[in-house]
Specification:
Strand content: 15-25%
Strand order of the largest sheet: 6-5-4-7-8-15-14
CATH architecture of the largest domain: 3-Layer(aba) Sandwich
CATH topology of the largest domain: Rossmann fold
Shape: globular
Order of helices and strands: EEHHEHHEHEHEEHEHEEEEEHEE
Radius of gyration: 20 Å
Oligomer: single chain
Largest sheet: 7 strands, mixed
Number of strands: 15
Number of helices: 9
Distance between the termini: 30 Å
CATH superfamily of the largest domain: Vaccinia Virus protein VP39
Number of domains: 2
């Protein structure tokens, strides 16, 4: 999404407006089916025509928003949620004990429940005036704002729907100093280029007194950790539901029974990838978007989860004007909480 969805002020919060053409889940729930916005249709078309077909991240976000709204399940849990919460709270206490932020910016807080704990800890310091919850999906942003914003600051807080690798349209009056929470390996949820773009966008909205707390999957983690059957089945259902949402939005297309969910590890790019793999050759027609042909064994890459080491993160930050101030690993060296701020 290359622009914030128009917002309107409510009594409780500045909420994301309901522009259904730019919200696939909202459109799918409507009684009438209208063409996708040219922006979303073009994004989906481009992703499906790449050599490695991809699913734009907004579709999984829309699935999560539907799950929360309908109460049919819970958000996927990051494997190191508890560790991230413990490390993050310790970092705030030891590295920023005297910090009194007036604004908190949560980047895709649905990725980790640690956002709630860290936002609460900062709000308890008594200085926070506003919280922003930033998600790819408008309804998910509103849902997450309800979770991360303490009652005392909700009326001045913002739910924003945007792609933070492109822009972060915070309100002009959003207060400083700010703490940005980028937890649950959100930095690793896109390619290396996307990660650098995200850091660059954050930097453009920061002043010297601002800081970023990041939660990152570490390179030392097992390449392919065992996944319990129940977790695998839930993940498979979630990713297949994204294709079902595309069907509901555009009117037909994917036969879900012809795709199988798989997880792989890309050793060259040091990342976990999830794929929906065609069980046999299939032609898919997406009205108003494109026609797509799958060979047997060809896949749609539905997500990535990159892993990081200190040198890589330091270099990425230096390239966009940020400096790494703290790097704390858990005892298993599987997860890291890092602190960054502008280099000048």
């Amino acid at each position: 999404m290359h622009g914030a969805i128009p917002t309107e002020q409510t009594a409780a919060q500045r909420s994301v407006g309901g522009n259904s053409d730019r919200n696939p889940a909202a459109r799918a729930a409507g009684a009438d089916r209208r063409p996708l916005s040219s922006e979303i249709a073009s994004e989906l078309r481009d992703a499906l025509r790449r050599r490695q077909k991809e699913l734009p991240a907004r579709w999984l976000a829309a699935v999560d928003a539907t799950t929360l709204r309908e109460g049919t399940g819970a958000l996927p849990v990051h494997a190191r949620d508890a560790v991230e919460r413990e490390l993050g709270l310790a970092l705030l206490q030891t590295q920023r004990p005297d910090a009194r932020p007036r604004g908190i910016v949560c980047i895709r807080p649905s990725a980790s429940s640690a956002n709630v704990a860290l936002a609460d800890a900062l709000c308890m310091r008594g200085s926070v005036a506003s919280v922003a919850a930033v998600e790819l999906d408008s309804r998910l942003a509103v849902e997450m704002l309800d979770r991360v914003a303490s009652r005392g600051v909700r009326e001045l807080s913002s739910a924003l729907a945007c792609d933070c690798t492109v822009e972060l349209p915070l309100p002009d009056d959003f207060p400083r100093p700010r703490v940005y929470l980028c937890l649950g390996n959100v930095l690793g949820s896109s390619t290396a280029v996307g990660a650098v773009r995200l850091l660059r966008v954050l930097r453009t909205t920061m002043s010297p007194s601002d800081s970023i707390v990041l939660g990152l999957d570490a390179v030392a983690a097992d390449p392919a950790p065992a996944v319990p059957d129940d977790d695998h089945d839930a993940a498979a259902a979630r990713h297949l539901q994204a294709l079902g949402l595309i069907n509901a939005t555009v009117g037909g297309g994917f036969d879900l029974s012809r795709f199988e969910y798989r997880t792989t590890f890309d050793t060259e790019n040091i990342r976990v990838e999830t794929h929906l793999v065609a069980r046999r050759a299939i032609d898919v027609t997406l009205p108003g978007v494109c026609d797509v042909r799958f060979r047997k064994g060809e896949s749609i890459r539905t997500s990535v989860s990159c892993r990081f080491d200190r040198n890589r993160v330091t270099a990425m930050m230096a390239g966009v004007g940020l400096a790494l101030r703290e790097w704390t690993e858990d005892s298993d060296r599987r997860f890291v909480v890092a602190l960054s701020s502008p280099a000048v």
